[in-house]
Amino acid sequence: MGNLGAFAASFNYMNNGIFEGRDSAGNLTGSYTAGDLGGSIGWGREFFTDISLGAAIKYNQQTLAGTAYSATAMDLGVLWSATSRLNLGLTYSNLGTKVANSTLDSGMRLGASYELEKGLLLAISSELKAEGGFESAQVGVESYVHPRLAIRGGYVLNFTDSQLEGLTGVTAGIGVQIVKNLTFDYGYLPYGELGVSQRVSLTYKFGCPEEAKPAPVAEVKPEPVPAPKPPEPIVVETKVIILEKEKIVILEDGHFEFDSVALTKTGVKAVTENIQILKDNPEAKIRVAGYTSASGTDEYNQKLSERRATAVKEILIKEGGIAAERIATIGYGEKRPAEFEATPAILHTEAARANKRVLFEIIVK
Asked: Which of 97, 126, 158 is the last residue of a domain?
């Protein structure tokens, strides 16, 4: 969503199945069901370099033995991309209303993920108890065994419930990319005496800006040259384009020479055709961000992304006379991929081509 940040929505449903009910003497009183139903709307945005903030409003309804309990709450979070391989996160969950006469189980969660190597991710997280200390810790790994298939495994260390120890702490899952924007996930989550939770989810990504494409050039066939006529007065029509919202132009890898910062003729045209818009909107700012694929070293990719962003800035200054102070550049290297690269050693995969790009963003104040 560009300068507005990113939006997300989710819907969740859990059926805990049927349980036997017993009285204080242990006599069977019948059976009952339990389950959860809820949804959330979230938003996040990068406010500082490598630091993003986000919030989510959620509604949840729990049903137990025919009685329903509902609540509305908010989650807040911050994410820091410390390096190209390390991400650190902090969230505070369940700021909101009471359930019956009880407050929601709110608290803080710390998390970190580290890319051990291309396609292999290690993650760890833990909840902080209100009275201090840690309630549990989760450790997991994710490995892409195929560009469209990931397998996951983990273990939950529970410090307050002895029933969730041993093999009951083992978790597992898979993720399958069905099409480019649609992913299927399955998770196996044991809950001690309550049995096993089978979690299934579908994730769809949308709202990506369209790539800038050069206008098609029609083939003109030569015609007979007519006799010259007296010249007519020349009338120049000036059309001013006023932007009411930001515009994002994607310069893909094909707009640059291979493994170079030099733009191709098509790339230069994609930049210069927006110069008049910048002149018509003198208050608009320009942000140029460079990105690379995961192949190569972190240091090389970082420098290449910075140099490609700078190359676009120089064209705007030299070709269009745009003031340098209006243009901000930044290079992210391989830290902000548009798609995950499961096989970075292969240079020209669909994911690699999507990640090698420069975003030329015109920001309207």
From this structure: 97
Owning domain of residue 154: 106-208
CB within 8 Å of 153: residues ≥ 6 apart: 140, 141, 170, 171, 172, 173
Residues 262 and 358 both lie in one domain: yes
Q: Are 58 and 76 in contact (CB under 8 A)?
A: no
Task: Show the CA angle centred on residue 287, arms to residues 283 and 289, nearest 5°.
Answer: 175
- Averaged pLDDT score across all residues of the chain: 81
**Beta strand pairing status for 285-291 and 327-331?**
parallel
- Residue 267, CA distances (Å) to 154, 237, 238, 310 in order: 45, 27, 25, 14
Strand locations in 49-85 (E): 51-64, 67-81
Model confidence at 301: pLDDT above 50:
yes
Question: Are 176 and 117 within one domain?
Answer: yes
Let me know whether 352 and 253 are in one domain: yes
**Per-residue confidence (pLDDT) for residue 123, from 0 to 100:** 94
User: In terms of pTM, does the model score above 0.70?
Assistant: no
Cβ–Cβ under 8 Å, residues 138 and 154: yes
If one counts every other C-beta atom within 10 angstroms of the C-beta of residue 146, the result is 12
Instruction: Provide the number of structural domains found in the chain.
Output: 3
Instruction: Report how far apart the first and last C-alpha atoms of the chain are (Å, whole number).
Output: 16
List pLDDT tens digits, range 212-242: 444 444 454 555 555 555 555 444 344 555 6
Compute how many other C-beta atoms are within 10 angstroms of the C-beta atom of residue 84.
19
Asked whether residue 93 falls in the same domain as residue 110, the answer is: no
